[in-house]
Amino acid sequence: QITLKDSGPTLVKPTQTLTLTCTFSGFSLSTGGVGVGWIRQPPGKALEWLALIYWDDDKRYSPSLKSRLTITKDTSKNQVVLTMTNLDPVDTATYYCAHTNYYSGSYSFDYWGQGTLVTVSS
Amino acid sequence: QSALTQPPSASGSPGQSVTISCTGTSSDVGGYNYVSWYQQHPGKAPKLMIYEVTKRPSGVPDRFSGSKSGNTASLTVSGLQAEDEADYYCSSYVGSNNPVLFGGGTKLTVL
């Protein structure tokens, strides 16, 4: 059974760096084709894809946020970490991590974490 | 890259069918067979309903179907049920440097 749990601070000040952790079970990020992505959703607004990391450490970023994002994986801990620098109140959103498989359902996310609401405010 | 275009709202009565569109360009929806659809109930995480334009994950009722024509993808929900009332989002592959682009979402109301 695949599960993901996204976690991070609930309140961050403007200009600070946000670090989010996705801890998962039921799959390994060393298995061919497997990936974990991050998606966010501002309150009352649409989903926005942020970043994606694959089993082979291939990384992809949203072009509009690329300069502010870093995604890494720790296969031994079954974790994926997303950092976002220079936060602004517009970054207030629920952040989700999600599982994907390049060889099955490419570029779709079939399992999602429960989401973590991050508020950016001074 | 602008979001894919979805109607803000759609509605239908129980038992009816409703179709939600997702319009992009030849660089995204029209260029690849990697369109996905997600259902999201209030306060919940999205749930994958359709992937690769027409495929249903295990456990998704066959009342949900996907299709594509040119630069527009569509999600059809047949035999509408009360529990289908939710927000629906499409997404498409755009290219190796920007693999996922979401639509603006459609709120489906079951009358």
Write a brief caption for the model.
The complex is a heterodimer of chains A (122) and B (111). By secondary structure, chain A is an all-beta fold.
Q: What would your notes on this structure say?
A:
The complex is a heterodimer of chains A (122) and B (111). Chain A is mainly β. In chain A, 0% of the residues lie in helices and 50% in strands. Chain A is built from no helices and eleven strands. Chain A has strands spanning 3-7, 11-12, 18-25, 34-41, 48-54, 59-61, 69-74, 79-84, 93-101, 111-112, 116-120. Chain A starts with a strand and ends with a strand. In chain B, the strands form two sheets. In chain B, strands 1, 3, 4, 7, 8 and 9 form a six-stranded mixed sheet that branches. In chain B, strands 2-6-5 form a three-stranded antiparallel sheet, with no helix packed on it. Chain B contains no helices and nine strands. Chain B is globular, with a radius of gyration of 13 Å. The model of chain B has no long low-confidence stretch (mean pLDDT 96). Chain B is mostly beta strands and 111 residues long. The A-B interface holds A 37, 39, 46-49, 52, 60, 62-64, 96, 105-110, 112-115 and B 1, 3, 34, 36, 38, 40, 45-48, 51-52, 55, 57, 89, 91-93, 96-105.
Average pLDDT, all residues of chain B: 96
Biggest beta sheet attributes of chain B: 6 strands, mixed
Question: Which two protein chains have the largest interface (Cβ within 8 Å of the partner's Cβ), and how many residues from each?
Answer: A-B, 22 and 28 residues
SS-based class of chain B: mainly beta
Overall pLDDT level of chain A:
96
> How does the helix and strand content of chain A classify structurally?
mainly beta
